[in-house]
Amino acid sequence: xxxxxxxxxxxxxxxxxxxxxxxxxxxxxxxxxxxxxxxxxxxxxxxxxxxxxxxxxxxxxxxxxxxxxxxxxxxxxxxxxxxxxxxxxxxxxxxxxxxxxxxxxxxxxxxxxxxxxxxxxxxxxxxxxxxxxxxxxxxxxxxxxxxxxxx
Length: 151
Prior knowledge:
With about 150 residues, the chain is an alpha+beta fold. It has one domain: Gcn5-related N-acetyltransferase (GNAT) (Aminopeptidase, 3-Layer(aba) Sandwich), CATH 3.40.630.30. The protein has helices at about 15-25, 30-40, 45-50, 90-105, 120-125; strands at about 5, 55-60, 60-70, 75-80, 110-115, 130-135, 145-150. A four-stranded antiparallel β-sheet has the order 1-2-3-4, sandwiched between helices. The protein has a three-stranded antiparallel β-sheet with strand order 5-7-6. It is globular.
């Protein structure tokens, strides 16, 4: 029952994309939304090469991952997904704590987090502060929460 967090490998891009899709679909979105999500949030090999991306493994199976998007305009926690079978068991918190430490070790000052309304409570519990709402990139007209977390 050991679980470990390690840097993602480029060849795991498709596996991570599929995990993100399963995790997002857990919340019951319709197929149009999920198709748009899939095209916007596909994890590519070049993304894994370009941005810190870490996976959480349990019994040699990837059950979660996160990415930190570092750009000139700011830094965001881009992905934090847990396989639906493992949601609610503390794995999200483990990934979050790892992301915070990784961010600090990279000298980052804060994360911006734009997330689904269903994840709002998780980020509040982790200490992030809601700064407002933004339009979803996945679905026009859908307003979703935005947070900031000071490292």
